Amino acid sequence: MTVERRLPGATGESRTRIAVLVAALVLLLVAAVASIGIGAHTVAPAEVLRALFAYDGSDDHVIVWDIRAPRALLAIGVGAALATAGTLIQTLSRNPLAEPGILGVTAGAGFAITVGSALGLVASQAGQLVAAVLGSALAALLVYSVGRQSPLRLVLTGVALTAILTTGVSLGLRLMLPEVFDQYRFWAVGSLAGREQAPLTVPLVAIGLALVGALLVTRALNAIALGETVAHTLGANVARVRLITLVLVTVLAGAATAVAGPILFVGLIVPHLARRLAMGSIPWLMVYTMILGPILMLVSDIGSRILLPTGEVPVAIVTAFLGGPVLIWVVRRYGTVAL
Q1: 2, pLDDT greater than 50
Q2: Which backbone phi and psi does 44 adopt, to 5 degrees?
Q3: Would you call 267 exposed, middle or buried from its count of C-beta atoms within 10 A (0-12, 13-18, 19+)?
Q4: What pLDDT digit, counting tens, does each position of 208-222 carry?
Q5: What H or E segment, with its residue span, contains residue 206?
Q6: Cα–Cα dist 142/164, whole Å
Q7: DSSP letters spanning 35-96
Q8: Calpha distance 278→13 (Å, rounded)
């Protein structure tokens, strides 16, 4: 399967994509250094680089290594996971409004963690990860099976499932079990603050493996984007590609939600920005998504620290402020027309 949605052909187009990739990587590096340096105690960019490559045990270097660098790494992982999950599900469903949060995948993860807390099964980081992935998988399968006939039905099913899981069943469990509410209220605020000290190895490894899987499935998605008939003609196993893509979406959304809580709109904003740069190529779209997602999350996290003089705003609120206008623009631009 070597067919591109739009054959690159022109050398100039390839050079433009490579130039955009280099610029995005430079922007990611700048955002990471700024994210590590900006906070209640500002560390100069040069000192950030010295701390990373020539650690001397000073206060600034301790702040960089113990707090800011793990938080930036968490932001990069969560941003890449949510953005890639959004790109995968938009490409698979050919729905520009599809996003893990809007389609109920994030709510499914939260519901599973709530139930797991009530049953005493998610005390560890690995337990939360497993519960979140299972909840995401069940929610994705339910929404996709009910709403796959049309983009509008898919979104409405996801919104309805989110309302049922978050304001219905989960709220009831939390009111009946106060100890569950205590655990949930910390997790339910989508934020990176305080999460950088949690064990992150398992979820970040899961995210890394799923990102590799997303890159490997791009050519098959490229064929499906041309239509199922063309995909079958090209030899693509459409059912298997859909199953693999749904597994990747659930792992990415579940792992990101398990470590950072529900953060909406990242999976909606980034694919639309990356699609304009990729010029019709699904593989390039996936690569740009994996870079722009972390940039958006790092910038949003910086904003969450400096918006209030007295404390931090959860990063989920910042992404919601950014995502609301984007959602309105997408609805006005695309309506319910499939991609």
Answers
A1: no
A2: -65, 150
A3: buried
A4: 999 999 999 988 888
A5: helix 201-216
A6: 13
A7: HHH-SSS---HHHHHHHHHS----HHHHHIIIIIHHHHHHHHHHHHHHHHHHHHHHHHHT-T
A8: 10
Taking residue 100's Cβ as centre, other Cβ atoms within 10 Å add up to: 34
Residue 294 phi, psi dihedral angles, 5° rounding: -60, -40
> Residue 189 in contact with residue 183, Cβ under 8 Å?
no
pTM for the model stands at 0.84
C-alpha separations of 258 from 131, 140, 214, 226, 326 in Å: 8, 16, 20, 34, 25
Structure-token pair, residue 247:
């597994």
CA distance 216 to 252: 15
Interval 261-271: pLDDT, tens: 888 888 888 99
Burial 137-161 (b: 16+ CB within 10 A, else e): bbbbeebbeebeeebeebbebbeeb
The SS3 of residue 121 is coil
Residue 311: Cβ-neighbour burial (10 angstroms; 0-12, 13-18, 19+): exposed
- Torsion sign (Cα): 131, 262, 183, 41: positive
Residue type, 153: R
